[in-house]
Write a structure and sequence with these properties.
This protein is of the alpha+beta class and 195 residues long. 54% of the residues lie in helices and 16% in strands. Strands 3-2-1-5-4 form a five-stranded antiparallel sheet.
Length: 195
């Protein structure tokens, strides 16, 4: 039985690597905030190795309700994520060179694992950020937590928050969908060859 990748599998590998490489050039995630005092809105953009945007304004506002300030140096993920994705891309080159279907399956699984761990880690950070408040904050609302949404919309006091993938996030999602689809295609192709 032929255990080599199809042309579609190889093309998917190249395209997925290209999508992941885009994360060094565009932001991966964004959180947008709007309130009556900020009708034009403020935003925070999360890159694989940095956090940018209106971070200082957000830190100033969050001080009043006791939330921690946001600083690039506080995120170990900004060190690990670029390394993990660079290794992923290098392994993709090895998958192309080795030209084995099983390697491709494992490589796809690795990207899905990176995605799952990243989303859990992000949710955990948001939970801590929104629940572990400074008890001596100037403004206290009993029972109120300020955890931003993992994805989607949420209203918190007079602020509306929208959390969603940015350009890089869509490239990551495209890579994951492409590889998942290609894995299914390769698996079906292997089953037909086995008959």
């Amino acid at each position: 039985m032929d255990r080599k990748l199809s042309a579609f599998g190889k093309a998917s590998t190249v395209l997925a690597i290209a999508c992941i490489l885009m994360l060094w050039f565009v932001p991966m995630w964004r959180i947008d905030l709007a309130a009556p005092q900020y009708p034009e809105g403020i935003s925070m953009k999360i890159w694989i190795n940095d956090v940018k945007g209106d971070v200082e304004i957000i830190n100033g506002l969050n001080h009043y309700i006791g939330m921690k300030t946001i600083h690039k140096s506080d995120f170990k993920e900004f060190v690990y994520m670029p390394i993990a994705l660079a290794v992923f891309c290098l392994l993709g080159i090895a998958v192309l060179a080795g030209n084995r279907r099983t390697w491709f399956y494992a490589w796809t699984g690795l990207l899905l694992l990176i995605a799952a761990v990243s989303m859990y880690d992000f949710w955990k950070w948001e939970y801590d950020y929104g629940h572990n408040l400074n008890p001596s904050a100037p403004i206290k609302v009993p029972g109120m937590a300020y955890q931003p949404p993992l994805i989607g919309y949420k209203k918190m006091l007079n602020f509306e928050a929208l959390s969603q993938p940015d350009i890089g996030g869509w490239f990551f999602i495209a890579a994951a969908l492409l590889l998942t689809g290609a894995t299914f295609y390769e698996w079906r192709r292997a089953k037909k060859q086995a008959l």
